[in-house]
Amino acid sequence: MIESLVRWECPSVHYTVEPIGLKIPLELTDESNYNRFEEKNVLFRCMSSSLFSFVSWVRQRDLHILTVGKYTYTTDQRFTSIHLENSDDWTLEIRDSRKRDSGVYECQVSTEPKMSLAIQLNIIVVEAYISEGPVLYIKSGSPVNLTCHVKDQVGTVFLFWYHNGRVLDVDEKKHRGIDVFTEFGPTTISRLFIAKAKLSDSGNYSCQPSYAEPANITLQVLNGEKPAAMQHGRQNTGFTTAACFPMVVLLSFALLM
């Protein structure tokens, strides 16, 4: 039996790689399942014996042949075949992975009988939102509570809060009297608390979890007065109600006649 192993490396922190095994001649191995985050790059790398000329990668959901040897056969430019000359490595790269990329991929060797290895790829979409958003008005001196919810299936690795693009680190939070409490789990909840809001606390706040887009909220700290937009909204509402009142009276009078 000639033995060939699938080898994996991580040339960049932007890539996600996984180990799989391949034997030649091949007995179909148990299907493997991998969870990966959306928008991250994925590398599937097969190492085949030099006795075989090339390796193909096939997407099972539509039986689309993605690569044959070093050539790529798809119009989706996120998929690329990578092969170094005089190397036994055959790599399928998926850049900027999307939810639709989830499914089974096969590394195949052109032999009789056919030999292949199936890999299940699960792309996870992590969603974050701030329940008080998108805009919060607070009177100066009042407490502020911002609550960020992160829903995912594997658990968030880390989470940071930003104010106007600047990370709220330990020193910054201590200096400004800000407390952050985070509970990690299937739904991670992080609470940012300001005991007494100051005008300087106004601005954009972002909750940035690992492997997800940030959630944002605009905080407006007011010095006693109400925001003009809210005042304008009430005036419009009152005007609309008053304007409709005569029409209702006239209509009722006409019906009575």
TrEMBL record:
The chain crosses the membrane at residues 238-256. GO terms for cellular component: neuron projection membrane. It comes from the Eukaryota. Keywords: Membrane, Transmembrane, Transmembrane helix. GO terms for biological process: synapse organization. SUPFAM superfamilies: Immunoglobulin. Residues 11-110, 113-218 form the Ig-like domain. Signal peptide: none annotated. This is Ig-like domain-containing protein. It comes from Trichonephila clavata.
